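Write out this protein's structure.
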Amino acid sequence: MKQKAKEVVLTFIEALNKEDFDKAAECLSEDMFFDGVMGKRNGSESYMNDMRKMKFKYEIERTFDNEDDVCVLYNIDMSGKATLFTCGWYQVADGKIKKIKVVFDPRPLLEN
């Protein structure tokens, strides 16, 4: 049975929180695309290399989903540098995360 998009995204975030990067990578399409305030990444390998280094922690406030689109509002602990309220838009195709777009106010990161 195919997982629903929301379940895939929540499994991915939980794996990142537990630093189970192999499990997190299993939730991503190999050709996934990340678009964020501080940069872009093409491919799951490039994205996961960053996640392994940064070890962010996610505190989910709310999730919304509509078929293969999932929106997550969360506080992200950026490795102790700052905790930022963030909105993530995850697009899922064939049971894998295909695209992630995140927006947040980067000023607290730039002040350090």
